[in-house]
C-alpha cells in the first residue's frame, strides 16, 4: 500500500545555513502575509476571495517588486502560498480558524520545500549523516536511518529552544505484517498508561515526575528573570538572561515531548506487530475521568496520540483496529461470566464477582471486557 510517512532528523546547519534558513522563513512569512492581506482586500471589494492559482500567478510579479524574495528557495514561497490557500479552504469548510497573519514572534518557525528531480532518490540525498536541501546544500543531521521511498517534501523548523529539525515527507510502500492469530484489548489508564487484556501493564513513563519537577524549577527561574527585567524596565525580548532561560525551558518541553513520542511509537508498533486485532475503548469515555481531575493533561495528549498511531499503523500493516462504544460498562461487567456487578468506585482496584466468585484486577478485567466487546461488534459487522 502506498502511503505517506513522516521522518524527522535533528538538523545542524552551519552559521551561513542558519542565516539562509532565517531568511527563507522570513520571506515565506512575507509572502504569506502579503497574499493574506490581498485575499482579504479582494474579498471586501468583490465579495469573493482569491485562489491558490491567482496567488501563485501573482508571485513572479511580487518578486519583481520585492527583489530579496529572489534570494530564497522559490518552491518554499510557493508552498507558503499553498498553505495560505489551504488555510482558507479549511476555514470555508469549517475545519479551521480564519487564517491569521504570521508573526515573527512565534516561537516555532518553519518553512516547507518540495524535493524534486534526482534528489528524490534517497541515497543521493542523505548520506554520511547529512542531507541535501534546496538552496542550503549539504546540511549535517543526527542519525542515519535508511529511508525507503521517494522524498516528496522537507519542512525545516527552528524550535523555541533554538534547535533545528527537518521533517521529510516520504512516499512509502508499506507491506502488511504477518498474521499472528492474536487479539488484544487495551484499557487506557491513569496509574498505568495502559493495561492489556493479557494482564500486561504498560508503565506510565517514569520520567515524567522527575521531569515535571525539573520543569517547575526552571519555570520558576524564568518567572524570576521576567520580574527582574520588568523591574529594570527592559522589554522581555531584549532581556538576555530571560531569553536564555526561555530556551532552557523550551528545550525541556521538547525533551519531554520527544521521550513521550518515542515511548508511544515503540508501544504502538509492538501491539500492531504482535496482534491481528487491537481493541481500544473510545477516548470520550475517558473524558469522564478527566472531569474528576484524575488524569493529567499529559496522559490526555498521550492517549489520543497513541490511538492515532494505532489507527494508521493498523491500516499500514493490514491489522484491524476496533473502537468500543463509550457507553460500554467495561469496568462493571465480570469478564468471566458476563454478570453485571454494579457500579464500582474508582478506589476499588480489586473485586470478586458476586455470581461466579472470580477475583478481578479492575483494569485487567476492563481490558478483557473491551476485547470481548470489540470482537463481538466487529463480528456483528461481519469484519472478523
Ligand atoms: Zn462472574
Characterization of the model:
- This protein has 384 residues and is an alpha+beta fold.
- It has three domains: 2-173, no CATH class; 183-203 and 262-380, Nucleotidyltransferase, domain 5; 208-254.
- It is 46% helix and 19% strand.
- It contains nine helices and 14 strands.
- It has helices at residues 15-46, 52-65, 74-92, 122-125, 207-232, 240-274, 284-291, 297-316, 362-380; strands at 2-12, 109-114, 126-127, 130-133, 137-141, 150-158, 164-173, 183-188, 194-196, 201-202, 277-281, 320-324, 350-352, 359-361.
- The strands form three sheets. The protein has a seven-stranded antiparallel sheet with strand order 2-6-7-1-5-4-3. Strands 10-9-8-11-12 form a five-stranded mixed sheet.
- A hairpin with a 5-residue loop joins strand 6 (150-158) and strand 7 (164-173).
- Helix 2 (52-65) packs antiparallel against helix 3 (74-92) and helix 6 (240-274) crosses helix 8 (297-316).
- The protein is globular, with a radius of gyration of 26 Å.
- The two termini are 21 Å apart.
- The model is unreliable at 118-125 and 288-295 (pLDDT under 50).
- Zinc ion (ZN) binds next to loops.
Question: Secondary-structure blueprint of this entry?
Answer:
Elements: E1 2-12, H1 15-46, H2 52-65, H3 74-92, E2 109-114, H4 122-125, E3 126-127, E4 130-133, E5 137-141, E6 150-158, E7 164-173, E8 183-188, E9 194-196, E10 201-202, H5 207-232, H6 240-274, E11 277-281, H7 284-291, H8 297-316, E12 320-324, E13 350-352, E14 359-361, H9 362-380
Parallel strand pairs: 8-11, 11-12
Antiparallel strand pairs: 1-5, 1-7, 2-6, 3-4, 4-5, 6-7, 8-9, 9-10, 13-14
Helix pairs in contact: 1-3, 2-3, 5-6, 6-8
Bound molecules: zinc ion.
